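Morning!

This is the sequence you dropped in the shared folder:
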Amino acid sequence: MDFDTRKQRLEFNKLQKRLRRNVGKAIADFNMIEEGDKVMVCLSGGKDSYGMLDILLGLQKTAPVSFELVAVNLDQKQPGFPPEVLPRYLTELGVPFHILEKDTYSVVTELIPEGKTYCSLCSRLRRGTLYGFAEQIGATRIALGHHRDDMIETLFLNMFYGGKLKSMPPKLLSDDKQNMVIRPLAYCKESDLERYAIAKQFPIIPCNLCGSQDGLQRKVIKDMLQTWEKEHPGRLETIFSAIQSVEPSQLADVSLFDFADLKLDRSPRIGAVNLWDADSDAVREPA
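The structure's back. Tokens below.
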């Protein structure tokens, strides 16, 4: 093994350890996976979901709890989607899987006017199908491949275009309380996942439905954030820390903090010293 090869192997090992450590920490911090869980890993064919499945398979061997993994892909009948890629990959990997076929592509392109983005409706249709199938196979967790950068981008999308201060939670109970969604990649950087996908040579399947649209709001936000990060390295990490450190009393949401009942409390404080009290020992006579 020559020097360059050894260096590449060392860098890959560091990258893999960092991703596994971040995923393990996210799972522990939010209690994402418990003993006996059946985790339905949603596999789109993109770098993030491939990485998520790969890392979960590695952690499954050493985790303090026993859990089951099953991969699920939703074939939305997008033009040019190669149906043989994922079944071949998962069969070679030895992972149990299901391929669901549902023509959401036709629904989305029919209902969304030309020039508008498909993402919102596409996501809702996809989510509804996956929720129903999770219940059908008895999955107790639905794992999605959203990473740290996705969560930050969503925060700004909601602020700039939706007028709301919210993002993607690492763990979410569906409104009907029938499904639990987890995002094991919540602490992982997109750049790390990109490097990991290249090193592992995942058979990436591009999304030709929404990826081909110009001027997507998420792309605008992504470009803005990447510019910030380039000009001020570490800014994305700071923003993500802010998502984890929320102070409702310093915002303006009356449903989160009781501003109306704030009252003055000027009762004497034990141990307080009034430096302006002429009789106070704290006042020193001039020399």
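Headline: The chain is about 45% helix and 10% strand.

More detail when I'm at my desk.
O.
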